Request: fold
Amino acid sequence: MHKTNLRRAIDPRHAKTMSSAELRAEFMIEDLFKDDEVNLTYTQYDRMIVGGAKPKSGPLAIDAVDQTGTPSWLDRREAVLVNLGTGGTVEAGGETYSLGRCDMLYLGMGLGAVTLSGEDAYFYIISAPAHRAIPAQLVTIDDARQVPLGSRDTCNERVIYQFVHPEGIESCQIVMGMTKLAPGSIWNTMPAHVHERRSEAYIYIDLPEDQNVVHLMGEPDETRHMIVRNEQAVLSPPWSIHSGAGTAAYSFIWAMAGDNMAFTDMDMVAMEDLR
Reply:
């Protein structure tokens, strides 16, 4: 089964007026993983597609996606697939790739239909427009570039795993990785920042089912929050901060698309300027 939703871009002036339910309807994706379904959300934030697929009973194929306007979804796009389960395989461009938990597979423009398999596998999907074909590449969690950040004193000791970035997997515009918080740490991406040149999507993972993350969004001087649970995704427009504090340690996968691929291209927000 294949389902695609459309999310139109929201102006920050409109976001200021929204209730919690309205914020969730526009910026959260709550049900990514359903047995034997592909669920895609086509956004107008840098034309990113955010999705999930769970091939519980047999292979699932992704080919035509109406919103892209092309015969096959990767005709003018690239994608990154992350296995959040175990024992997953991806077939694309005549090749088969095996993905363990949190391994990431980059698929370049023009590869055609993609088939996902694995009874215990489920896949997080990010896609963005591309301008040239780049060879597919698989990077395991063990081979990702690791960057330790933060400290125990500020409750944000964490490791950033960089997968798709200028010194790692090549792409046209996607920059993607995972951040894992140490036990006892709860904060991510604080001090906060915005980046007007690109949009971002988060998915929170490794969060116990009885725990939550308070995800902060909005303009720095007009912040809002949403309560996020395990394996739910959040869309972050260029004008919004994106930060969170959990009631337990967690990990999250971040993905960006836009003009500048430099990981450090961001406009920092001073702690005293947050409202």
The CA atoms of residues 179 and 207 lie 13 Å apart. The chain has two domains: 2-12+30-141, 143-273. The first strand starts at residue 2 and ends at 7. The first helix runs from residue 12 to 15.
